[in-house]
């Protein structure tokens, strides 16, 4: 099975070793906020000086602060506390010149944008640069080990500012590029992994190993969507496979329509 990331899971104390003082202070606050918001400690990593949850969800300081402003609840899964506000109606995804240099990834971006636009949401996507954008996302490439692709969660009512796709994705069939970019754009809209509570469902083993989280306060179940994940059951599963179509399932469609439908 193709893996999106292979970051070594470490404890919170180990995350912060070797950081500069300013970066360390910011990372400490982000990690503290995530734990307060209900994210298991060993679901939090630092990779390339960025704080990640679930292996590919990039969390800024502002986003982490928003997460702890929301009252706790006993709901289960699917979106984070951070979603995109009503002022955002057109999101422009702007690939870098290096991203455009990988043909399957470039084509996968077009297919991912088409996936979202086919749903008729109040938010449309466009490939930039273009006009009329009320929010922008940068699509760039990385060479992180293990094939890791990441995306930022929303903050201040805006979508996550970046989707960062590993160049190794270009070596796989087009459906893999479509699947992973659609997945990462889902994080930028606030979606969490559908199997965050047991990533072995899509990854074959816990990836990373989640801690028990009986209150599930770090995730909010979206009404009308499944509360139990299945292999291939969502584009937001933690790990894709070569068999995934890259298209939304009925559960994905229900989730996005609930959050961003008219």
Automatic annotation (TrEMBL):
What's a single GO MF annotation on this record?
Answer: metallopeptidase activity
Q: Which Pfam families match?
A: Peptidase_M57
Segment forming the signal sequence: 1-23
**Which keywords fit this entry according to its UniProt record?**
Hydrolase, Protease, Signal
UniProt keyword Signal, yes or no:
yes
What superkingdom heads the lineage? Bacteria
- Name one process (GO BP) from the record: proteolysis
Q: Does the keyword Hydrolase apply?
A: yes
Record's protein name: Milk-clotting protease
Instruction: Give the species.
Output: Pseudomyxococcus hansupus
């Amino acid at each position: 099975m193709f893996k999106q990331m292979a970051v070594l899971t470490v404890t919170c104390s180990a995350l912060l070793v070797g950081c500069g003082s300013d970066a360390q202070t910011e990372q400490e606050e982000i990690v503290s906020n995530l734990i307060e918001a209900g994210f298991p400690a060993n679901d939090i990593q630092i990779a390339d000086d960025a704080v990640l949850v679930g292996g590919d969800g990039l969390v800024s300081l502002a986003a982490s602060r928003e997460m702890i402003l929301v009252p706790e609840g006993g709901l289960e899964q699917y979106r984070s506390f951070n979603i995109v506000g009503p002022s955002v109606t057109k999101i422009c995804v702007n690939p870098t010149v290096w991203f455009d240099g990988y043909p399957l990834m470039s084509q996968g971006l077009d297919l991912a944008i088409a996936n979202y636009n086919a749903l008729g949401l109040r938010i449309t996507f466009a490939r930039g640069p273009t006009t009329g954008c009320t929010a922008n996302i940068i699509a760039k490439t990385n060479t992180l080990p293990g094939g890791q692709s990441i995306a930022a969660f929303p903050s201040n009512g805006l979508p996550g500012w970046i989707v960062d796709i590993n160049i190794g994705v270009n070596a796989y069939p087009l459906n893999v590029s479509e699947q992973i970019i659609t997945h990462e754009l889902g994080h930028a809209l606030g979606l969490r992994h559908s199997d965050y509570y047991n990533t072995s469902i899509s990854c074959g083993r816990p990836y990373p190993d989640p801690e028990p989280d009986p209150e599930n306060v770090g995730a909010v179940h979206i009404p009308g969507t499944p509360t139990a994940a299945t292999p291939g059951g969502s584009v937001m599963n933690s790990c894709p496979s070569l068999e995934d179509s890259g298209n939304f399932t009925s559960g994905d469609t229900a989730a996005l329509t609930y959050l961003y439908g008219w």
